[in-house]
Amino acid sequence: MGVGKSTVGQLLAERLGAGYRDTDDDIVAAQGRTIAEIFVEEGETAFRAIEKQAVREALAGHDGVLALGGGAVLDHDTRELLAGQRVVYLSMDVEEAVKRTGLNAARPLLAINPRKQWRELMEARRNLYEEVATAVVATDGRTPEEVTQAALDALELKEA
Q1: How far apart are CA 67 and CA 28, in angstroms?
Q2: Model confidence, pTM
Q3: Is 107 exposed, middle or buried (CB count within 10 Å of its CB: 0-12, 13-18, 19+)?
Q4: How many CB atoms lie within 10 A of CB 30?
Q5: What is the pLDDT of residue 40?
Q6: Would you call 61 exposed, middle or buried from its count of C-beta atoms within 10 A (0-12, 13-18, 19+)?
């Protein structure tokens, strides 16, 4: 959350001359409501099922840069689909997350005691992010352009 996946994903796509797609955007468009609304109205389990299908469809139908929601890797089948793909895990620490997002209540999983919840989410997810990652790129104190360049370098990709 707030790591810059959408911004960096778009920059990366531009520099590679590839298309860009975000599964969170796909979900909002298909559902006609925000992700926060889905969480409130149907709960996390229902959202994760919707997310799993969105990721599956995006991986099958898109060959450019694809940004996934932070919880997509929680699903075992999704992690298997990501095996063999070039995956960049954009990492940051809690202090950077506070600066970027304010860790506000608009993030459904961080509504109560945001710093503690962010740390717990990261502790639960970090190993999954690392499991699927081809490269890990720290975003702390970096501009989106610097993160994009670091991702290109880490993946040994050349610009179009």
Answers
A1: 14
A2: 0.81
A3: buried
A4: 12
A5: 92
A6: exposed
